[in-house]
Specification:
This protein is an alpha/beta fold. It has a single domain, classed as Rossmann fold (3-Layer(aba) Sandwich). About 45% of the residues lie in helices and about 15% in strands. It is built from 8 helices and 7 strands, in the order E-H-E-H-E-H-E-H-E-H-E-H-H-H-E. A 7-stranded parallel beta sheet has the order 3-2-1-4-5-6-7, with helices on both faces. Helix 1 links the parallel strand 1 and strand 2. Helix 1 packs parallel to helix 2. The N and C termini lie far apart (about 35 Å).
Length: about 260
């Protein structure tokens, strides 16, 4: 894919690993100046160094996306330093899992602090910064936001909120040339799934649930993110794009 993002300014939350890292690196390869944020400096700097080694432009900011003031300041500072903001990728998330009947209110709320609140704060700020120039916002959701999964009530609710929030934001931003779309993965090889996929039996079972026979790679999700952020998707807004190996297309799959 040739996205042609030369000199565009992109901000990626949760950019230190997984889908966020892959998206940041691909955005940079396509010519964007990339700012990534996350809570841990080490992984962020590693991504920045990798981007710079490939000839790209990147910087890292240590920001907790569940901290409204810090996140807003990071976005506004990015726009001030780089002359604006063209692309926002809301990738950061946090979640708890467990039986609904055993979930505390605090655990329930932790599913929303980064995933929903952070997406709202960043999107609101970005739409203000993009008001006169237009731009593209890509939010990361999950198949759990569209289908139920036992033990994932809080996470599922938060990702469902991201999907419909994005539709509303798309409706509001369209007149100003601001597009808002969602990428909806199923299981992807990231740090958050590493433990589950390390179990051989769990890995085989998960692969069999996906029509394409395997879990996704972060780089495959990044391709969709960058497509939606680019002019190749200039007439696409309010869409929730499944990038899941066909998982959401089937009612039942055979598992031996």
């Amino acid at each position: 894919m040739t996205a042609k993002l030369d000199n565009r300014v992109a901000f990626v939350t949760g950019g230190g690993s997984g889908i966020g890292e892959a998206s940041a690196r691909l955005l940079a390869r396509e010519g964007a100046r990339v700012v990534i944020c996350g809570r841990r400096e080490g992984p962020l700097q590693g991504v920045v160094e990798a981007i710079r080694a490939e000839g790209g432009v990147a910087e890292a900011l240590v920001v907790d996306v569940s901290d409204e003031q810090a996140l807003v300041a990071a976005l506004e500072g990015t726009a001030e330093r780089h002359g604006g903001l063209d692309i926002l990728v809301n990738n950061a998330m946090s979640f708890t899992w467990g039986a609904l009947t055993e979930m505390s209110t605090a655990e329930w709320h932790r599913n929303f602090a980064t995933t929903v609140d952070g997406t709202f704060w960043a999107t609101r700020t970005a739409m203000r910064l993009m008001a006169e120039r237009g731009g593209a916002i890509v939010n990361l959701a999950s198949i759990c936001g569209e289908l139920g999964a036992a033990g994932m009530a809080g996470y599922s609710a938060s990702k469902a909120a991201v999907i419909n929030f994005s539709r509303a934001a798309a409706a509001e931003g369209a007149a100003q040339g601001i597009r808002v779309n969602v990428v909806v993965p199923a299981v992807v090889e990231t740090p958050s799934t590493q433990g589950m996929l390390a179990d051989e039996q769990a890995r085989r079972t998960t692969d069999k649930l996906i029509p394409m026979g395997r879990v996704g790679r972060p780089e495959e999700l990044a391709e969709a993110v960058v497509f939606l952020a680019s002019d190749a998707a200039s007439y696409i807004t309010g869409a929730a794009l499944p990038v899941d190996g066909g998982r959401s297309a089937v009612l039942v799959t055979a598992v031996e």
